[in-house]
Design brief:
With 423 residues, the protein is of the alpha/beta class. The protein is built from 12 helices and 12 strands.
Length: 423
Amino acid sequence: MIYEQIDKDLLAMAKESDTLLKDIYQNIDDICLYNSNRILSAFIDNQVSYSDFADMNGYGNYDEGRDKLEKIFAAVLGCEDALVRPQIMSGTNALYLTLSALLKHGDTMISLSGNPYDSLQEMIGLYGNSTQSLKANGVAYEQIDLLNDDFDDEKIVTRLRQQNVRLVEIQRSRGYSHRLSLTIAKIKRIIQKIREANQDVIIMVDNCYGELVEKLEPGHVGADIVVGSLMKNLGGGIASTGGYVAGKTDLIKMVAERLTAPGIGKSLGANFNLNISFFKGIFMAPNAVKSALKTAVFTAYMLEKLGYKNVSPAYDEERTDIIQTLELGTKENLVNFTQGIQSTSPIDSFVRVLPAPMPGYPFDEVMAAGSFTQGSTIELSADAPVVEPYTLYMQGGLTFEYGKLSILLALTNMKQQTNATHK
C-alpha cells in the first residue's frame, strides 16, 4: 500500500497543511462553482441531447453535436465562435494551425511575452531548418520581453503604433521559463493599451494550462483568438485527444479553412465517436482544474516547509494556470522526485524515469507521465530539462487525493535517496 510507504514526518506535515491551507482551498472551490455554473448554463442554453453523441464517420457532414459543442466552447471562452476537433492533435498543433492560417508571406508577428515555449521555437523558425516554419514561409518574427514578469507596455505601444504588425501573441503560461504566468488582469490591461495604439492587429492568446483557473478567460477581456489543447484543462481528463481554437467568427473561418479546405471550413470533419468524451470533458473540467490547483498548492506548501526556496508560485500566491515549478537544486533530486511521481501513477508505475532526449526539445528531459491518455497534462505529470538549476515543471491531478498521495511518495523517495547518498 502506498500510504504505508510514505515517510511519517511528511504525513504529519500533510495533516497540518489541511488546516493551514483551508482558506486557499475554499477560494479554489468558489472559482470551480462559478465556472461550473457557466458551463452548465451553456449546456442548457444549447439544448444538448443524447442524439448529439452519435458517431459520425466519413465526411462528418451535418453533425449537430459537433456544432453544439463548438457553441459551448465559444460561450465558455468568451468568444463568438470555436473550432473543437479531434483532428487538432495538441496545443502545439493548434497554435501552428492558427498562426499558419492567419499569417502570410510578408506579415509580421510579435511575441509580447518573450521567448515562446520550447516546442514552438522550431515551428516559428527560431532554430532548425524546417521548410514549413513560419520564417521559411516569409513571416517575420519579433519579440518584446517581459519586464519584471509583466508586459513592457511602453515598448509594445510604441511598436504597434507603426501599424505594420499583423498579429501579436501572448503566452499566458510560463512554459519552461522562470517568469510568472500572466494573469487575466494583466492580459486585460495590455489588450486595452494595444487597442488604443492599433485597432487592426490580431491579438492571439496561447491559453494552454490556464482555462478555468480564473473566473474570466482571455476572450472575455478582448482577445481576438484563443488557442488550447483538450489534453489539458478543458478536456477534463476525459477527452483522449483534440484541441480548440476560439475567437472572432471571421478568424475562426480562416482557421477552419486551413484545417479542411477553402469553401468547406467547419462543415467537414468526422468526430470519430468522440463527441461524448468532449462533452463530458468540458463538463468535468472545472472539477479537474480544481483538483490540479489544490495539488499544486499542496506541493508548493510541502516544498517550502522542507526548505526549498525557489518554489513558484508560492503556496499562497495568486494562480492563473495549473503549472507549479520546483527548483530542486541537483540532478539527483530532480530524477528522484520524478521517479516518485511515476511510481505512483496508475499507468506505467513500473517504468523507471531517466534523462533522455525528446523530440522538439533542445535538452535531455525527465518526464513522469503515467496517464490514461498519452501526453495528458491535466492528469498529474512532471517534466523538466536536465539543466541547472534543475527546475521541475509539474501540473495536473485528476483528484486531489490521488495528487496528494503521489506528491508524498515523491518527497519520500527524494528524502530516502538523499539520506542513502550521505551515509
